[in-house]
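Possible race condition, two jobs.
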Amino acid sequence: MSNEHRGPSAYDDPGTPEEITRRTFMANATLTLGGIIGLGLAIPIVGSLLPKTGAGGGTWTALDEAGWKQLQSSTDKPVKIDFVLKNKDAYLPEDSSPESVWGVKVKNLDAFKKLRPDLYDVKSGEVSYPAVNLGFAIFSPICPHLGCRFNYDDSAQKFLCPCHGSQFGPEGDHLAGPADRGLDPLPLREQNGKAEITWIRYAPTVPDRIIVSYTS
């Protein structure tokens, strides 16, 4: 049957203005409520997928035994010590990577504190663990300027960064170059006869020590 011969239908009547307004209100309210519920579900789901950084929980990792013994027998020269860093980042599989740190024997803690005011006299530079433990300081190998890897120069008796020329003394004190602070110490402990450290990555280019992650 053609439309011109079809009788009137309830679907053809849009209703009174009051009915139209009521239907519009109910439709908008349903959409708004659905959006709120969806957002409430999405926030915890997304949050559970994000890697957790900046707080909580670095793990203790054993240092290479030979390197630790070398540091114990050293006098004034910093020692590079290897270890294997295991990463478990959020939902990703565990990964292992070779890493290293620099260790130095601290003979006089008061002298060390005078050389490192960035650790002891600057509130934002303090760490929540002893910078010196068991008579040693363990330094991250990452330059606090822009994250390059520095090395120790025996002839100059300094840590030298090859990227932008930052220089540090054997105790990690900032001597020259664009770095905003001295070298970053890492937590050290002895457990069951083994030396262990916690790997921490700090934010570069700022004088404050802000934890970025516990992974490489």
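Job #2 (started ~2 s after job #1):
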Amino acid sequence: MQTLRKMAAELMVGVLTVSMLFLFSTPLSAQKQENPDVTKLLADARDKAAELSRDADEMEALIRTDVSWQTHAEMLESVKEHINQLGRVAAQLEQKRDSASQWQQQAIDRMLPVLKELAANTTVAINHLNENKTRPLQISSYPQYLKENAEAAHNLADMISSFVNYGDSRAKVEKLEQKLEIASR
């Protein structure tokens, strides 16, 4: 199952990369150049989103186990910390947005709403746990928040990773064009 999921994700990255290359068919010289600082921050965001995604999976797995509310609280704290770390990177990206290339701006614009959704769901889950320490899983909304967080975390990690892969692919194409002295469209 994991292999199929991985293969599907890799296929989506490939399709997204090719689609984005056609989407941005404006000559490279007419577009704003990539900001290397934004590129580094996006790579950092990708890594932090991957950590968050793993945490969200572990958090969701707790639904199927009989662990204490303290274990839930510890995992929620870890999720919250990764969201906060990603939020700090997102704040830096927002500050550099105007100096970013078009695709970098799109990456920033698309990741922020998902990150806000994750933060809101996590806050609700923490509040729910604080109010229902003796029976967190007996209230149907709590597991739903955890499932929604895991899904949003996966979407965020996949999206940021796809944008970083696109940037890498685009840089390779530009390097090849220069090497072969091919004029941009």
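The chain has five helices and no strands.
Logs attached separately.
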